[in-house]
Every structure is written in C-alpha cells, then in structure tokens.
Amino acid sequence: MIGKRIKTLREERHFSQEKLATELGVSRMTINNYENEKRAPDIEFARQMADYFSVTVEFLMGRTEYRYKRDEVISLKRSETLFRIMEKLPQPEVQEMVSSLIETLEKSVELDMADDIVRVMNHCCLQVRRILYGYENLKEDIAVPVKELKKSSVPEEVIRKAVHYKPRVVYDAAFHATKRIDEELNQCAQVMERKLEKVLEEEIKKPVNATLD
Q1: What residues have CB less than 8 Å from 45, skipping those under 6 apart?
Q2: DSSP string spanning 78-119?
Q3: Cα 154 from Cα 17, distance rounded (Å)
Q4: Sign of CA pseudo-dihedral 147, 152, 155, 158
Q5: CA 31 to CA 141: how far, in whole Å?
Q6: What confidence score (pLDDT) does residue 72 get?
Q7: Which of 62, 130, 179, 189 has its CA 20 to 30 A from that of 139?
C-alpha cells in the first residue's frame, strides 16, 4: 500500500521519480523500489516523506484514508453527530440501512470501485437533501400567503385555487433528482463496463493449461 501512496502523491505533483528523489535526498532507484514495494522505507524516512507531502504517516502507510489529522478529527465529530441523530430514527429501518451501507462500502473497496460508488452515494444524498430543503421552503410558501389571504377574509375556495399548484412542485423536484441520480449510476456502470472489458481481454490472453483438472 505504501508504494501506491508514494506514487499517487508523486504524480499529484507531476514529479518524476528522479525529481522526488532529488527533493528527498535519495536515489531514483530508492524511490522506484519503494513504489514497487521491493523495499519499505524505515519509519524516519516515512516521517520525512509524510512531512514533505503534508500528510500523516498513517495515510502514507495505508493505515487510514485520512490524509490530514484535522480531517480525522472532523470525521469523528460528524460520526458523533450521526449517532445522536440515529438514536432518534426508527431503529429496525435505520439498522437495516446502516448494514446495507457498510456492506456496500466494503464491497466497493474490495472491488476497487470505492471512488465511483462513494460519488454515486454522495450524489443520491445530495439530491434527497435538496428535496427536503425544497419541501421545507414549500411549507413556508404555502403557509405565508394562506395566512395573509385569511387576514383579508378571502374565501377558502379562492385561497385553495391561489396555492393549489405548490404541493405538486415537489414531484418536479423528485423527477429532476431521479434524472441526476440516473446519470451518476450510468457513469458508474460505464466504469464497470470498461473494467469488465479489461478483465475479458486479460482472460482471453491467458494461456490455456495443458493439464485439465
């Protein structure tokens, strides 16, 4: 894992192995060996490299996905908030949701699809959040004019006609959200398709065993 992390951090800065080696005071072959995991850096050099890239040693070693310590602290605080909210939710449903989320994320990591799956899930949450805020705004858009019209002694039938279309707006928002989620899922499916095509080509190129089991 450390080799992959070193290579990722190096390429993010558009450095060659030789350039990074010069920056860190080692040979290009040393960097090459680290990236190909033929050798592992000692803890002191790992700290030096982590400091150079401004990441934690834990991230560099592949022990965490948090690049920066502050991100881990923020995440822990958000986790505490999440647990407090979860206590207020219907427990059978929320437990099933959490189990499904954990299984989905574990499988996405196992299949090297984490980035794509997390992007889709984030987008789904974003669209649902927008619908919730839209719903909240619509409640206000209905309540305020109704109160004003009632103060003016406007007949109930006229009031209903004046705001009758507003509840339907939420369906338009849901339709738009579904379309955006579908686009994200399609992009994810395209990534999967390309990976499966690569698997197909690799399997075709493999030599057939002379001895059958």
Answers
A1: 24, 26
A2: HHHHHHHHHTTS-HHHHHHHHHHHHHHHHHHHHTT-HHHHHH
A3: 77
A4: negative
A5: 61
A6: 67
A7: 179
pLDDT tens-digit map of 167-184: 888 888 899 899 989 999
Give me the pLDDT at residue 28, please.
Answer: 93
Instruction: Tell me how far apart the alpha carbons of residues 38 and 211 are, in angstroms, rounded to a whole number.
Output: 33
Q: pLDDT confidence of 91, banded at 50, 70, 90?
A: confident
Tokens of 78: 């958000």
The residue assigned the tokens 């019209």 is 149
Model pTM score: 0.58
Distance in angstroms (rounded) separating the CA atoms of residues 169 and 126? 18
Nearest to 32 by CA among 21, 43, 47, 24: 21
Confidence of residue 70 (pLDDT cuts 50, 70, 90): confident
Instruction: Judge whether 5 and 40 are in contact, CB under 8 Å.
Output: no
